[in-house]
Amino acid sequence: MNSPTPIRSRAAQVDAVASDDPTVRAAQLGDLSQRLLARCRANGATQAEVSCSEERGLSVNVRMGSTETVEATHDRGIAVTVYFGQHKGSASTADLRDDSLAATVDQACAIARHTENDPAAGLADATRMYQPGANGWPDFDDWHPWPIDADRALDLALACEQAGRDAEPRVTNSDGASVGTGASLSVYANSHGFVGAERSTQHSIGCALIAGHGDAMQRDGWYSVGLSSDDLDTPESIGRRAAQRAVARLDPRPIATGTYPVLFTAEIARSLVGHLLGAVSGGALYRRASFLLESAGTQLFPDWFEIQEQPFLRRGLRSAAFDGEGVATRESALVESGVLQRYVLGSYSARKLGLESTGNAGGVHNLEVAANAGLREAMLSGMGRGLLVTELMGQGVNAVTGDYSRGAGGFWVEGGEIVHAVDNITVAGNLKAMFAAIEAVGTDVDRRSHIRTGSILVGGMTVAA
Question: What range defines the domain where residue 192 resides?
Answer without folding.
Answer: 150-248
